[in-house]
Every structure is written in structure tokens, then in C-alpha cells.
Amino acid sequence: MGVRGMEREVLPQQQSDTEFEVFVRTNERRIRLALCAAYGTDLGIEASAEAFALAWERWEKVPTIPNSAGYLYGIGRNVARRSMRRRTPPRLPGVPVTSTPGIEPGLPDALGRLSENQRVAVMLVHSLQWTLSEVAELQGVSKPAVQKHVDRGLAKLRKGLKVEL
After folding, report:
1. How confident is the model at residue 11 (pLDDT cuts 50, 70, 90)?
2. What is the total count of domains within the chain?
3. Other CB atoms within 10 Å distance of the CB of residue 83
């Protein structure tokens, strides 16, 4: 208890706090980025925070779920969708032309016109270098489904931005 050399007793709740903190460190960034890709920065951050708050409330159950990160992504997705009923469609941050000469200024709007699944798949795979397996696991779908979303999303982006290969 504050005396040098004496170890503190770890209470069961403190042990759960430690497990929860490890879970957050391991998964929060990935889930937040995926939700931001799907719903825009503001709503993605808000949905991620809500999902992790709910995970804390239900912590006894969360570690027993086989794909707990996917479960939280689903909670965040539901939070964002409920919120979107009261908001405008997701808007991704604009690209300042002077500071990013290698990025097409119309890209954020073009990404916003993709379906949610296509936008998430394209942004996670091509912008954040996630593997198809990582995206599939998070979304609870197969790798071929993710590949199809990426392919269709890229095709729509090329057509919308008038880019030919």
C-alpha cells in the first residue's frame, strides 16, 4: 500500500481493466479507421467511441465472442447508421491541392459516391495497406467478397475520375 517493497494486490476488476486496456490498444485504431472510411471522420470517431464504451459495459461478454473486433465494428456501424438518419451523407475531408499535388482533388467526393462496402474495402486495402483477410475478418465477410468490393469500387473511381489504365 505505498510502502516500498510491498506488492499491491490486483483485484478482479483491475485485472479486467488491464485486459480491456490491451484489447483497446490492439483494436481501437483499426476499428476507428474502418468506421472513418465508411462514415467520414467525425461520425467514424463518434461511432468508434460509442462501440468501445459499450464494450466496457459488456466486458464480461466481449472476450468470449470469436471475432470481438468484428463485433465492435458492427456496433459502431449500427451507431453510425442510426446517427446518419439524422445527418447528411458521409463527407470525407477535402484534399488541399497545394499541399498534396499527387492526390486527385475529386477523390474524396468520388469515394463518397461509392457504396459503403466498396468505400471501406478500397480505403482499407489501398490507403491503409490492410490485407483482404483483415478486412474480411473485420466485416465478417469472405475474402472474395472483399476483393469484389475493391474491384468494383476501383472501377467506379476510375470511371468517375475519368482515369484510364
Report:
1. very low
2. 2
3. 15
